[in-house]
Amino acid sequence: MTSSAEQMRAYKGPAVFSFGFRPFFLGGAIIAAVTPLVTAAAFGGVLTFNPPNGLIAWHAHEMVYGYLGAVIAGFILTAVPNWTGRLPINGLRLAALAGLWLAGRAAILSAGLIGAPLAAMIDCAFLVVLDLLLWREVITGKNWRNIPICILIGLLGLGNLLWHMELAQGGAGTFGVHWGLGVVAILLALIGGRVTPSFTRNWLAKTGAAPFAAPFTAIDKIAIAALVAGVLSWLFAPGSLSSGGILIAAGALHYIRLLRWRGWRTFAEPLVLILHLGYFWLATALVLLGLSLLAPTVIAQSAALHALTAGAAGVMTLAVMTRATRGHAGHALEADRLTVAIYILVNIGAGLRVAAPLLPVSYNITMGFAALVWSSAFALFAVVYGRYLVQPRRRQ
Q1: 213: which DSSP letter?
Q2: 256: which residues sit within 8 A by CB, 6+ positions away?
Q3: Residue 173 Rama label (left phi>0; alpha psi -120 to 50; beta)
Q4: Is residue 210 scored above 80 in pLDDT?
Q5: Fold (CATH) for 15-390
Q6: Run of H or E residues at 25
Q7: CA pair distance 230, 302, nearest whole angstrom
Q8: Residue 331 phi, psi (nearest 5)
């Protein structure tokens, strides 16, 4: 019988379709590089762009269900073989799945021509198919531990459907976007809560540092439970003061969780440190979101939401994208100067976007500059790492 490794080496198709991270990390990075710039340019009157569902709705949808949907798919399709011991989805099946994601992006832009119902069907199909593939792999591989991930991907797909249903009823799609962001926050806590301490432990062991002593305990479970409670209260009781309190408490618990992983010991390796910074953004976003409910005149909800999107999601996705690409493409798990530049750009861009309402500069100018800096991080990833993603694995 042929082994999995032998079957992988026997793959002769295009390198970009040899592993799930390749097309989806590249596609997600391009969407993340382009969408904020187009939005900022349209707001500033530099560009005339009127998507069928409106500029704000298009921007929010493409950042949550376009960019993040792609990166999540890339991560999951790459992690599943490790979780289940089964072969990765590649070749024609992966190309078809990537084509379905791309068709969703085109359908959103052409909804005025093909009709909203057909556009919704095309766009929603991607996450449905992805989730069905994930369920099949997890069940076949008897990998019961990751059933919560299957459920969350299904909920992400439901959020996309809710966005389309809202628009069909004359709404702005806000609840569908918030639903998606809530799911993303939980995914960041679950997946980030695995990879951050794991990679930190591995790096400390490799460098001969003192043992890493932060196993998964009750505090981790309580922090995740508080996050779920905070997300549910924010979605279904956004005007309640208790919702703000739960979110702030959840953020505090995730700060404690982060401190237990001792990220300050990883300053010598940005490839590990960036994971801790991404998780710091997640805890901060929860606190800011809670404060925006308790004191909306002090903390704007848009600032809190961008702490979650541009900050937590932006930083954590680039952390995972750079590490996974380097590892699977056969490059050393060390951050070079251009990778460090990517990390600096995304953090500065996120910080500027969150602080924009408070800075003594024109809000529109600050927002435009923040979009330029943040998008530059993803553009740089697409340029620097794009060649790794489309070329065969480097022989070591």
Answers
A1: -
A2: 219, 223
A3: left
A4: no
A5: Cytochrome C Oxidase; Chain A (1.20.210)
A6: helix 21-43
A7: 17
A8: -105, 155
| Residues 273-286: tens digit of each pLDDT | 999 999 999 999 99
Q: Are 271 and 256 in contact (CB under 8 A)?
A: no
Distance CA 26, CA 387 (A): 10
Joined tokens for residue 369? 């500059």
Are 69 and 123 spatial neighbours (Cβ–Cβ below 8 Å)?
A: no
- pLDDT value at residue 4: 45
- Give 340: exposed, middle or buried? Use CB within 10 Å, 0-12, 13-18, 19+: middle
Q: Are 49 and 55 in contact (CB under 8 A)?
A: yes
Q: Specify the pTM.
A: 0.94
What single-letter amino acid sits at 152? L
Task: For residue range 56-92, list pLDDT tens digits in order.
Answer: 999 999 999 999 999 999 999 999 998 888 888 999 9
* Average pLDDT taken over every residue of the chain: 93
Q: Tell me which residue of 17, 24, 116, 18 sits closest to 73, measured CA to CA.
A: 24
